Amino acid sequence: MIRIYRQGEFSAKDIQNRASENAGLLAEVEKDVRKIIDEVRENKDRALYDYTERFDKVKLESLIVTETEIETAYRNTDSAFISVLEEASRNITEFHNMQKRSGFEVKKQNGVVLGQKITPIKRVGIYIPGGTASYPSSVLMNAIPAKVAGVEEIVMVTPPNSDGKVPDSILAAAKVAGVTNVYKVGGAQAIAALAYGTQTIKKVDKIVGPGNIFVATAKKIVFGEVDIDMIAGPSEILIITDCTSDPKCVAADMLSQAEHDKNAAAILICTEEAYANKVGKEIENQLKKLPRYDIARASIDNNGKIIIVKNIEEAIEISNLIAPEHLEICLDNPFDYLEQIKNAGSIFLGKNTPEALGDYFAGPNHTLPTSGTARFSSPLSVDDFIKKSSYIYYTKEALGKVVDKVSLFAEKEGLDAHAKSVKSRFNCQKD
Predict the structure, then answer these.
(1) Which among 47, 105, 302, 365 could disulfide-bond with 39, CB atoms 3.0 to 4.6 Å apart, if both were Cys?
(2) What pairing do the DSSP bridges indicate for beta strands 386-394 and 112-120?
(3) What pTM was computed for the model?
(4) Would you give per-residue pLDDT tens digits along the chain (431 residues)?
(5) Catalytic pick among 259, 282, 325, 328
């Protein structure tokens, strides 16, 4: 049963800390993951085959998903779903096209040129989870911004099913999104392969995509060898309402995240106790009908919360402290409050904008900061797949005007060679 609180009876940290997040477990996971990474670095493909047989219970003959397999999967996928994939792809592409950056160049009259150039990352690896569910939406959300950014090679890794295949829907999404290569490997071993390379899988420059605690830990460990997008925790939703929203809809939106993961969090902030009780009853009614009942049940019992506040301003204040991954503003006038929202991964405005729209179809990215990290980080975007390089040009005359200033700065820092490197252009350095 979901718990009901009043302001002051909880902290933001209580919500951000989930049941699985304890030091003992994390330490044990990190130990296991480091062992897997070391094994992959040493034995490469052989380790990938061995871990796939051990964890996924399938003995593979090849890690590669062939072009024929991808085409067959595309043909075998329901045409109605292909149509939805393609329309969602267009929406995602259109939104991310608006994020594209241009370099700039400033030519000053004194012989100085300053600028910034934009270069796509050359090779990117995307991780797509398997296991309890398959996520073709994650294929689109991770691959499309990379493609829009101009990434040359988009490599996808995902665990195989027990029959040694990747689900048709995943491969169909990969084709629609423009993925370059697909490999049948998952878990921490897949992250290690992308970070360090094997005989079959070439090393990438950046790894993106969601995963379980083992995948997240592996990404954390290999960061620095390669770049990563973020360390994503369990999913979360926070809903703000003035109690005029249909309790059935609010309950359904909360359960849409609860069914993701036992450690997912579903939070409602409202202004009336009677309404809170109605939503609580609706959650119980709807829970019974969910195929993923056990997962959603654990999520609601362990991490579900309804918070009663005096007004919407107080609700927004709490929301900004929590910094939720998904924030629904279920009000008739949501744009009146948009400016007050400071910390949120993605914001869903109004009573007819369920979070699921963002997961699949609307266009903005669904790879979002979790566990309070929306205080300082952003959704996955085209920016994650580019590099910005600055450039500088000075004529000798322009350098001559600042040589003494630059040299003085260097000398104040005790870096004589820096000073001499500037003075040397004018043969005025002192021995």
Answers:
(1) 47
(2) antiparallel
(3) 0.92
(4) 899 998 777 776 666 665 445 667 889 999 999 999 999 999 999 999 999 999 999 999 999 999 999 999 999 999 999 999 999 999 999 999 999 999 999 999 889 999 999 999 999 999 999 865 689 999 999 999 999 999 999 999 999 998 999 999 999 999 999 999 999 999 999 999 999 999 999 999 999 999 989 999 999 999 999 999 999 888 999 999 999 999 999 999 999 999 988 999 999 999 999 999 999 999 999 999 999 999 999 999 999 999 999 999 999 999 999 999 999 999 999 999 999 999 999 999 999 999 999 999 999 999 999 999 999 999 999 999 999 999 999 999 999 999 999 999 999 999 999 999 999 999 754 44
(5) 325
272 carries an active-site annotation: no
* 118 contacts 400 by C-beta, under 8 angstroms: no
326 is catalytic: yes
Contact 77, 169 (CB under 8 A): yes
What distance lies between CA 134 and its chain's CA centroid? 17
Q: Which CATH class is domain 3-19+234-363?
A: alpha beta
CATH superfamily assigned to domain 24-228: Nitrogenase molybdenum iron protein domain (3.40.50.1980)
In the chain, ranges of CATH 3.40.50.1980 domains: 3-19+234-363, 24-228
Single-letter residue type at 121: I
Of residues 236, 259, 260, 326, which has the active-site annotation? 326
